[in-house]
C-alpha cells in the first residue's frame, strides 16, 4: 500500500512519536533528526522538501479525489464526496463507490453499500479493525 501523505501537523506528530519511542529504547534522537527520518519515510530528500510539499499533497483526500482501496476486505474504486480534516492527520471522509461493495461474507445473502463514511488516519486506514485484525477501510490515492 502507498502511504497517504499526512498534513503538516500529522507529520510533526509522527516525528514526536518517533522521538518518544526512541527515547524509551534509550536512543537519543534530536527533534530535527526525527523530522528528517519522517521526511525520508515518505520518500523526500529532507524535511524542508517534505514540508514544502505537504500542504499541496495533503489535499489528496479533497472532495472529488479518486481513491481505491479495500472496505471490509473488499476492493473498490471510489470518489471522495466529503472530506473534513480532524486533528493530527486524521480526516473524516465519505466515499461514493463506483460499484457497490458487498459487506457480508456469508454466501446466502448480501448487503451492498454504495456510500460509506469513515475517519482515515495519516497511514491511510481507519483505526477500527475487523475481527481478523485488518483495518475496516484502507485507502490509496489513484
Report on the structure:
It holds the Pfam family Glyoxalase_8. This is Glyoxalase-related protein domain-containing protein. It comes from Pelagimonas varians. The chain has 142 residues and is α+β, with helices and mostly antiparallel strands. The protein has 2 domains: 51 residues; 81 residues, no CATH class. The longest helix is centred in the N-terminal third of the chain and has 17 residues. It is elongated.
Termini Cα gap: 12 Å
Which parts are unreliable, with pLDDT below 50 for 5 consecutive residues or more? none
Radius of gyration: 17 Å
Q: Total strand count, please?
A: 5
Note the total helix count.
Answer: 3
Largest sheet: 5 strands, antiparallel
Protein name: Glyoxalase-related protein domain-containing protein
Organism: Pelagimonas varians
InterPro entries: Glyoxalase_8
Domain Glyoxalase-related protein: 1-140
Amino acid at each position: 500500500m502507498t502511504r497517504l501523505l499526512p498534513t503538516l501537523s500529522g507529520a510533526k506528530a509522527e516525528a514526536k512519536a518517533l522521538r518518544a519511542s526512541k527515547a524509551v529504547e534509550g536512543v537519543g534522537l534530536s527533534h530535527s533528526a526525527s523530522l528528517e527520518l519522517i521526511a525520508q519515510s515518505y520518500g523526500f530528500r529532507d524535511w524542508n522538501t517534505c514540508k514544502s510539499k505537504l500542504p499541496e499533497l495533503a489535499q489528496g483526500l479533497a472532495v472529488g479525489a479518486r481513491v481505491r482501496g479495500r472496505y471490509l476486505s473488499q476492493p473498490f474504486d471510489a470518489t471522495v464526496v466529503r472530506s473534513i480534516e480532524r486533528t493530527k492527520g486524521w480526516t473524516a471522509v465519505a466515499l461514493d463507490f463506483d460499484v457497490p461493495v458487498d459487506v457480508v461474507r456469508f454466501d446466502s445473502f448480501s448487503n451492498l453499500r454504495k456510500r460509506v463514511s469513515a475517519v482515515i488516519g495519516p497511514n491511510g486506514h481507519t483505526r477500527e479493525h475487523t475481527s481478523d485484525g485488518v483495518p475496516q477501510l484502507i485507502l490509496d490515492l489513484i
